[in-house]
């Protein structure tokens, strides 16, 4: 008879232990931290609300009880520190032995209604999306490594935060872990004089798309000719002065791709990139792994209308904790060591199956309602 390498009980235990070890919430009465985290995990595994989850589980506390304990969370710096400790506690083997590529990005969560003074500190304004211009913003740093793609750090964005402050906070959390940075990939939202100047001063290798501005001058003047080339460019800001950096312009011929023809220019701000122009376009595409992590996050995100910014951050981060634990379980149990790199059998344990394992184990423990009484 075959012995299983992983069960739904083991999966649930790993997730709950990860949260219990690092995240602390003040509890009162009969409800324990383990029960609270179990309810949150069940809600995340099904992308449902706390209220619906508590109504589904027969032996669980009420939704009001869970929300009462969650609303005691009011210390954002402590919550941020604890969540990052949880994210970094379950890492695939050997991740810290080599320098790694990091992708840094911002994620916006819609906010509706009139914010309170406490909420307003964490609400950012941006282009209209999903019927609002107000958002909770979170920044994440993500390791781009085959078989070890994990989120190492997450931080809430405050209204008075600068882009340099956000990046330095994330990088500091990664380097204090002992991670050596091979290269940083940023999206065009970080393209600014202060960010580029800070990266150059810190001697951090980076790749970042150039925002094309101007009708004929500005960065638009870089898009000319019929071939790729390298140049230097000086960007000036009335507020922050100027900075000079390397720009690589990649000329791509579409040749009917996506129904388009002609030339497409892609300009990148780069520093200490160890390869040529031909490889830059494909190398930067590795950054889109962080977009995949956001799509995975949406499959295990707790639905809520709670406005407490600390609780909202906790719900956002729990999704990334689940994904990191999933990668850790894949690497530890659903894989074979071999010459040339570990063989991970992801088809046996996709994220969807892990979420099903969590739901099954919790439903057995707390029993789902199967009758209705008037």
What do you see in this structure?
With 374 residues, this protein is of the alpha+beta class. It has twelve helices and eleven strands. Helix 1 crosses helix 2, helix 1 packs across helix 11 and helix 5 packs parallel to helix 11. The longest helix is centred in the last third of the chain and has 24 residues. The radius of gyration is 23 Å and the shape is globular. It starts with 7 loop residues before the first helix and ends in an 8-residue tail after the last helix. The mean pLDDT is 90.
Find the count of extended strands (DSSP E, 2+ residues). 11
**What average pLDDT do the residues reach?**
90
Main beta sheet strand tally, sense and closure: 9 strands, mixed
Helical residue percent band: 25-40%
How far apart the termini lie comes to: 48 Å
Globally, the shape reads globular
Structural category is: alpha+beta
Tally of helical segments: 12
What's the order of the H and E elements?
Answer: HHHHHEHEEEHEHEEEEHHHEEH
Question: How large is the radius of gyration?
Answer: 23 Å
> Beta-strand percentage?
15-25%
Low-pLDDT stretches are none
